[in-house]
C-alpha cells in the first residue's frame, strides 16, 4: 500500500459523526478494475485496505480507506454492460425519470458518470437534450464519437457552474451507480443545487444497503464504492444540503438497487409515501442497530468458506474451472475467498478493454469468449447479477454437460445434471 494514494475516513461524510461500528475487514485488496497488462505490471501492483464501517449516527456504511480517484478513474476499464438486461433497465430508467421529472422535448438531462453514453442515448431517443460529465477520458472519447456531448471532468460546484452558464439549468440530473463512488458529497450536492432547475429532479441509482445485507451481495464492496446507503441515510444527507427526498423505486439490478429522487428543499415537490414506508421498514428491520451488521459479517465469512470448499472440491475431483465475467465484483470475490490460479485456469469476458490482461490480485488471463479453445467443466459465475441471461445464452455449454457455480447468496452448482436430479 502507498500511503500517498489513500486517505482514511475520520468523520462520516453524511452527518459528520465520529462513532463507528467496525463491520468487516477483507485485508489489503487490489483495485477491482485495476486489470494488469502483464507479469511486469503485476510486480508493481498495489493493494489497499478494504474495511467496512457503519456510522452510529446515520448508519451510513462506508469504507475506511479512500483511494485517490485519479488512480481509479482517469483510465477506467468498466464499460456499461451491453446485455439485454441492462438495455431493458435503461429504458425503465428513462420512463421513470421522464414521468418523475415531467420531461418535455428539449429539456436538459445531465448525467454524472455517464461512461460511454448508453443511458443518455436512451434519453436522446425521447427528445431530451443531453450532456454527460465523466472524468474517464478514454470513455468520454467513445461517448463523443457516439454523438453524446460529454465534459471530461469530475462533477462538483465548479463544473456545475460552467455547465449552467453554457447549457442552462437541468430538468433532470442523473447519477446511476456513481453517487456511491463520491467522497466529497457536499461539493457534488452544491453543484446539483447550482445546476438543477427550480422544478427539476436530482435522481440517483445506488446499491441499496438493505439488499446488500439481505442478499449477501458482499462482492459489491470494493474501493470505488465508498458508501452504501439506506433511504434514511440519504434523506439525512439531502436535508443537510438543501434538497428534499421525494420518491424512491426499488430495482432488481446489480443485486438490488434503489432509484431515489430529490428536489430543491424550497421547491413545491413533497415527500412521497414510498420514501416514508422504506424508512419505517429500515427501522423495524433493525438496519439502524449493530446486530444486523454483526450477523452480515458472520454470513459473509460462512459464504466465503463454502465457496472455497466447493470450488476446491471440484478441482480436486479432476474438474477444470474458469471464471465467467471479469467484473469488478469478481475481483472482490476471488480475492476475498482466496481463489486464484490454483483453482481457476482463466477468466472470460466480452469487454475489449479487459481482454489480454490479467485480473487484479489473482492474475488470471482474461480471454475473449471466442478465444477459449477448450471449455472448462465449470464456470464460476463472477457476473452473477446476470445469471439468468447468461444461462440462456450459454445453453449449448450446459447441454454439453457444463455447469456454473453461482457464488451468491449461497454457493450452488447450476447444470442440466443438477436440474434433472
TrEMBL record:
SUPFAM superfamilies: S-adenosyl-L-methionine-dependent methyltransferases (SSF53335). GO terms for biological process: antibiotic biosynthetic process; methylation. Residues 12-73 form the Methyltransferase putative zinc binding domain. Keywords: Methyltransferase, Transferase. GO terms for molecular function: methyltransferase activity. Residues 253-409 form the C-methyltransferase domain. It comes from the Bacteria. This is SAM-dependent methyltransferase. It comes from Streptomyces uncialis.
Amino acid at each position: 500500500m502507498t500511503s500517498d494514494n489513500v486517505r482514511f475516513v475520520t468523520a462520516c461524510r453524511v452527518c459528520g459523526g465520529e462513532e463507528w461500528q467496525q463491520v468487516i475487514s477483507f485485508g489489503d485488496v487490489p483495485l477491482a478494475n485495476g486489470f494488469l497488462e502483464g507479469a511486469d505490471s503485476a510486480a508493481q501492483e498495489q493493494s489497499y485496505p478494504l474495511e467496512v464501517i457503519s456510522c452510529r449516527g446515520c448508519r451510513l456504511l462506508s469504507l475506511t480507506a479512500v483511494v485517490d480517484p485519479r488512480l481509479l478513474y482517469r483510465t477506467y476499464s468498466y464499460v456499461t454492460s451491453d446485455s439485454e438486461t441492462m438495455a431493458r433497465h435503461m429504458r425503465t430508467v428513462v420512463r421513470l425519470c421522464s414521468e418523475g421529472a415531467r420531461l418535455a422535448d428539449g429539456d436538459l438531462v445531465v448525467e454524472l458518470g455517464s461512461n460511454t453514453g448508453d443511458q443518455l442515448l436512451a434519453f436522446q431517443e425521447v427528445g431530451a437534450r443531453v450532456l454527460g460529465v465523466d472524468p474517464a477520458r478514454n470513455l468520454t472519447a467513445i461517448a463523443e464519437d457516439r454523438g453524446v456531448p460529454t465534459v471530461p471532468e469530475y462533477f462538483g460546484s465548479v463544473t456545475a457552474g460552467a455547465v449552467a452558464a453554457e447549457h442552462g439549468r437541468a430538468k433532470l440530473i442523473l447519477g446511476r451507480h456513481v453517487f456511491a463512488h463520491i467522497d466529497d458529497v457536499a461539493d457534488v450536492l452544491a453543484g446539483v443545487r447550482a445546476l438543477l432547475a427550480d422544478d427539476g429532479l436530482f435522481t440517483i441509482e445506488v446499491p441499496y444497503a438493505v439488499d446488500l445485507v439481505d442478499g449477501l451481495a458482499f462482492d459489491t464492496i470494493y474501493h470505488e464504492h465508498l458508501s452504501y446507503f439506506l433511504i434514511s441515510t440519504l434523506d439525512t444527507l439531502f436535508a443537510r444540503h438543501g434538497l428534499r427526498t421525494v420518491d424512491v423505486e426499488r430495482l432488481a439490478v446489480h443485486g438490488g438497487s434503489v432509484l431515489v429522487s430529490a428536489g430543491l428543499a424550497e421547491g413545491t415537490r413533497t415527500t412521497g409515501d414510498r420514501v416514508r414506508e422504506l424508512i419505517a421498514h429500515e427501522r423495524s428491520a433493525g438496519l439502524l442497530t449493530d446486530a444486523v451488521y454483526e450477523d452480515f459479517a458472520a454470513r459473509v465469512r460462512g459464504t466465503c468458506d463454502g465457496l472455497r470448499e466447493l470450488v476446491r472440491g471440484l478441482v480436486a475431483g479432476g474438474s477444470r474451472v474458469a471464471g465467467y465475467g471479469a467484473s469488478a465484483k469478481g475481483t472482490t470475490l476471488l480475492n476475498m475467498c482466496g481463489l486464484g490460479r490454483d483453482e481457476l485456469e482463466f477468466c472470460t469476458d466480452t469487454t475489449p478493454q479487459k481482454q489480454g490482461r490479467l485480473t487484479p490480485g489473482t492474475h488470471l488471463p482474461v480471454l475473449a469468449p471466442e478465444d477459449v479453445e477448450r471449455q472448462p467443466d465449470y464456470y464460476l459465475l463472477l457476473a452473477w447479477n446476470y445469471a439468468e441471461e447468461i444461462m440462456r445464452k450459454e445453453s449449448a455449454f450446459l447441454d454439453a454437460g457444463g455447469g456454473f457455480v453461482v457464488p451468491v447468496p449461497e454457493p450452488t452448482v447450476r447444470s442440466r445434471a443438477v436440474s434433472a436430479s
